[in-house]
Amino acid sequence: MVTRLSPRSTDLLTELAPDVERLFNRHLEAPRLWYPHEQIDWGAGTAFSDRAWSPTDYPLPDGVRSSIYVNLLTEDNLPYYTNTLTRMSPSTHPIADWNHQWTMEENRHAMVIRDWVHISRCIDPVLLEDGRRVQMFQAKVPAPETFADLICYVALQERATQIAHRNTAAHLPKDDKIGRNLLGLVAGDETKHYLFYRDLTLAGFAIDPSVMMVAAAKQVSAFAMPGTGIPGFTRHAVRIAKEGIYGIGQFARDVLDPVLGLWDVGHLENLSPDAERARLDLAAVVARLSESVERLAAKSARPVPA
Ligand SMILES: [Fe+2]
Ligand SMILES: [Fe+2]
Hints:
mainly alpha, Ribonucleotide Reductase, subunit A, 69% helix
């Protein structure tokens, strides 16, 4: 699907140019230079031709294995994300430089996680490669319609990805210092990406609150972790949620709460009729979500019948 920018989106994009430049420079002022090859204990590996993979190589709960698998395949899909960002960014706009920086930083995530996965033998390399081939052949990533949609979506996604990597690291065995450390480095990069997009959305709200309000409501209500092209995604997502790594509870508390708190949509003034409707829709989505979270919490607190 070819995404075309509407005239409204083009205006917002043009007006955001100084903010993109400011936030890009801020990003560069605090570099997080780290080398993927230094994060791995290369001598700890064993060739798979000498010994086939077995779950006992690295005992882990299913939900943690699923999380590593889904997170890595999501990072593998980078070419299609870059394609979407590039298609929506004129080459003469400062956002083009940001896209290049972002792609360069994201690229090391799949490299370092895959190296660790193969050396530590924490997940089945055959399952992983089969999943990668299926997912990447589909070339499926979310396709936001407008630039406002794009930045709202990516702000949420960067935050969600940060939480998913961080919580996966915390669920690894304490003695896997290498795994915990490298997933922490990846989560740190996602934090910086989140801060860029979060503050770009804030600048967008200051310029055109109505356009941003409509985009925010649409992206929050449709938000899902990117992974629908991954074989068995629903099964893996359920396991990941059951393990307490990432599910609707984390989405509501760790992603939506801070982002909506900053957007402060309840106090926006002089909204267009469309944007007023979007504000109500968003409030309804948030209310439904918190009901679901409460229901789930009550269900898991209920004693299991003997
Ligand atoms: Fe990443
Ligand atoms: Fe990121």
